[in-house]
Amino acid sequence: MNRIISPSILAADFNNLGKEILMINQSEADWIHFDVMDGVFVPNISFGLPVIQHVKKIATKPLDVHLMIINPDPFILPFRDSGADILTVHYEVCKHLDRTISAIKKEGMKAGVCLNPHTPVHVLEDIIREVDLVLLMSVNPGFGGQKFIQNTIRKVELLRKLINDKHSNALIEIDGGVNLENGKLLFTAGADVLVAGSSIFDAQNPSEQIHHFKTI
Ligand code: DX5
Ligand code: ZN
Q: What does the domain layout of the chain look like in residue ranges?
């Protein structure tokens, strides 16, 4: 079982982003999570390619890019060129998800698919062997600092069963309202990766909080 921690910079201090990235570099965090929002798929706009390009120059950990955008296909190459190592698209916006996942992998990135809280796990049964990662939203996407949706634990258990039954190697990542308490339950339920924004960046000592996540 993996215990991968991917801090979401959405909750970071953007006035000191470089310092925040250096903190992540020196911490026990495994990846860096980027919540890219277009204001169409989700009711918020966050940041885009320039932020990824600049962070790539100083980051020593893989860039885990979560696209909350209505039309991801034209941005596969630009995000690859900007330094994305993992690129995750939302199931809810992909008319040809198998083609999109293949295109991401063809460009040398790990390919992820994300499910909103209302989207059932079984929709992935015919693509689960093709994806490297499944991101389950544990809040409605668009904002950090929201309340964790408890039904996510059950979805993790269902997804873990689907992955095992289909002999898939996909990792299970959880994003939204994750903290040390529900994080422990999520790992027990079968999650591999936890995304945490406010729980890490609002902590007195973010680096220490990351250590706590690694050892829950
Ligand atoms: C929602 C975002 C958030 C963010 C983490 O669209 O994806 O889930 O990454 O936010 P926290 O950890 O602050 O809830
Ligand atoms: Zn995210």
A: 4-215
Task: List residues with catalytic annotation.
Answer: 35, 175
Q: Using the mean position of ligand 2's atoms as its centre, give its distance from the Cα of residue 86 in Å.
A: 12
Tens of pLDDT, residues 116-150: 999 999 999 999 999 999 999 999 999 999 999 99
Mean pLDDT (whole number) for 189-202 = 98
pTM to 2 decimals?
0.98
Per residue, what are the HEC states of the chain? CCCEEEEEHHHCCHHHHHHHHHHHHHCCCCCEEEEEEECCCCCCECCCHHHHHHHHHHCCCCEEEEEECCCCHHHHHHHHHHCCCEEEEEHHHCCCHHHHHHHHHHCCCEEEEEECCCCCHHHHCCCCCCCCEEEEECCCCCCCCCCCCCHHHHHHHHHHHHHHHCCCCCEEEEECCCCHHHHHHHHHHCCCEEEECHHHHCCCCHHHHHHHHHCC
Residue 8 CA, closest ligand 1 atom number: 9
User: Cα of 37 to ligand 1 centre, how many Å?
Assistant: 11
Q: What's the CATH class of domain 4-215? A: alpha beta
